[in-house]
Amino acid sequence: MNAKEIIARRVAMEVKDGMLVNLGIGLPSMVTNYLPDDVDVMFQAENGVVGLGGSAMPGFENKDLTDAGGGLVMAVPGAASIDSAVSFGLIRGGHLDMTVLGGLQVDERGYLANWMVPGKMVPGMGGAMDLVAGAKQVIVSMVHTAKGSPKIVPECTLPLTAERRVSLIVTEMAVIEPTDEGLVLRELGPEATVEQVVQATTAKLIIPETVPRMAL
Amino acid sequence: MNAKEIIARRVAMEVKDGMLVNLGIGLPSMVTNYLPDDVDVMFQAENGVVGLGGSAMPGFENKDLTDAGGGLVMAVPGAASIDSAVSFGLIRGGHLDMTVLGGLQVDERGYLANWMVPGKMVPGMGGAMDLVAGAKQVIVSMVHTAKGSPKIVPECTLPLTAERRVSLIVTEMAVIEPTDEGLVLRELGPEATVEQVVQATTAKLIIPETVPRMAL
Amino acid sequence: MKTATKLEDAAALIPEGAVLLIGGFMAVGTPERMIDALVERGVGGFTVVANDTALVGKGIGKLVTAGLVKKVIASHIGLNPETQQKMIAGEIEVELVPQGTLIERIRAGGVGLGGVLTQTGLGTPVEEGKQIVEVQGERYLLEEPIRGDFALIKAKQADYKGNLDYALTAHNFNPVMAMAAETVIAEAEVIVPIGAIHPDAVKTPGILVDHILEGEL
Amino acid sequence: MKTATKLEDAAALIPEGAVLLIGGFMAVGTPERMIDALVERGVGGFTVVANDTALVGKGIGKLVTAGLVKKVIASHIGLNPETQQKMIAGEIEVELVPQGTLIERIRAGGVGLGGVLTQTGLGTPVEEGKQIVEVQGERYLLEEPIRGDFALIKAKQADYKGNLDYALTAHNFNPVMAMAAETVIAEAEVIVPIGAIHPDAVKTPGILVDHILEGEL
Hints:
heterotetramer; A: about 220 residues; alpha/beta; Glutaconate Coenzyme A-transferase; 10-stranded mixed sheet; 4 helices; C: about 220 residues; 8-stranded mixed sheet; 3-stranded antiparallel sheet; 6 helices; about 20% helix; globular; Acetate CoA/acetoacetate CoA-transferase alpha subunit (chains C, D); NagB/RpiA_transferase-like (chains C, D); transferase (chains C, D); CoA-transferase activity (chains C, D)
């Protein structure tokens, strides 16, 4: 199992029956591949659909049905078209149960930076700030380090996405939960040790007596 | 011609081609009876329709199609159903060209009071405050006096509907325009003299050299 | 997927003293069967947020008659003399809100905004006790968001995902209220199979709706 | 009643330096024929308010390539490298706004509200220079309304009253933008007779629309 698959499989376990979920582009969108069949979940794409149905299979394309990355998608039976005001009303109003997003940095406060690298990458925040500020649960899914450089840090040096603590950080090495006391190491990846996680993390981690392995 | 017919006929002359118009309940709603056939106008009812089509004729009733007074109405071809947020978005956002409302008092500033008599009549303002604050033109249509007591007064003693100058006051005796300088007597009713209007009005009136009669 | 909820079960969800957002304009677009079930059950002390209290014997008027309403937040109560009498007698507290402000306050509650900045009500008794905010040199009243414990919604069609559409002037407060309560109960004229309402025709996505009421069979 | 407007006549309405609200999300729901007509005409200096600048060669991307855009107010420009290059070269000014804030600012402009109170952007660079308003003990950013000189709208159907409906994810910014400009120009896939769009299916009432573009015959 490669890093991305580990992460997507572990995030999928957080998705519960009846939820409305928004998946970011890239790694987060892989989560759909690992959902149990008996979970009845609706996916939202912030550009305007509740009931996203995955990438369009050949012959099922509709130029007016895309996801937030602009890719052609399908809709599930019972889907609803919504305009951007309603879409972000769902996000900001607490109707979105979970968002899964990528991350550049997360810090000891649980704050996320994921939209900009000053002087290098200024694509715009898109819907990320509303998602992190508004979703009931915010799950950061990312590889643990960027080319060996830690991404879970004492305090974000990149501009924040929101002044709000995220719910959970899932990497290929660990599941980490931000709490009032700080970042708690909840689970280990299939091949990671506590020492390796600590080594790859500059943020202070709270390490319980037993840290189980991800039950992938 | 009775007082109400004079008023409704005169207000109808203000309605221009292409307008979106909201008519209050009662006297204002009589305006539709006197519109020229060649005026293409859409009526809005604030409870949720653009393209109100007058009272429902027998056999044309639909329990889900009513005006702001709750009366059964029809819709014109090309009508649109709108929810209350859109309806008041049209009103507040400057999309409503004209509202015609009844009045209890109007004063020298052109301010209207039409929703409450403390201790006597407290029905609620309904949509009146939004209409007066938001419509491009606000026309007050009312009989000139209440049982002989002037309704066009130096300063409203009743609670205001909005802190905004109305566009025109139309009574059976006069057409009066609130301006920066004050209330200007623009026209006389079919049977009124300048002296009678002044007599029936406690507000100061600016009286031009010639005051034409309403061209009903 | 949702199964239709029995009227009495839906009514039983609503506790004494709940804040109810109730759709409708002079009872048009009001869930009458749900109202009847509440009257039947007799638990009250409700704060009702609605455009109006309808007429005696219709819609919210029936809750007023049954003595189940402690407080009303509405834009108009003038066509229900019973509400007026109970207000004067001190039996019902009434907060009057301009209609356009009321719907925006509920919308703000539903879409997670901190309030509404409007010029409606400036210079009137509506202004009293409220924050004034200046934007680009203009004064605005800050009106606070409203949310309900329950929204009681009337739709034209519901499907078994909870998707709703609405008819003509029976839209009114319903689609906005369906976003602004902890629990949303929808009464439709008819319940249709999933997929029978085109995605473009859905006005309330089913994920907002907790219960659809059983139909009249 | 409206008659269909020729593409070149519609483009000629728009003067140098106009503020354009343009519907679409990565060019889905963008009025491409209207964009082409603007490129053809070559008058520019526009401030474009839109979710994004699409891709090179699509939608708003074509205006960027043609050098007709002076300023962009958008939530995302990351998929159009040309916009980024012109931004870095100082040829285009870019104001980045969170997507949910952007749509609400346009809505506020369209429905006559004084601004938007949101927690999105608090504690981030988006906060800089903006009023903070406290409501019920919570802090909110005050984001100001946006209006355009023109809104360029893409619809599924238009009728000859100007009523519009929209398709699937091609709704996006269109219905809200249609309320927030002095002049609204709508491009539909098809123009249908008055009455052919059910009142409940109309998402933009025709009174908001000034011009419907001629179809492809």
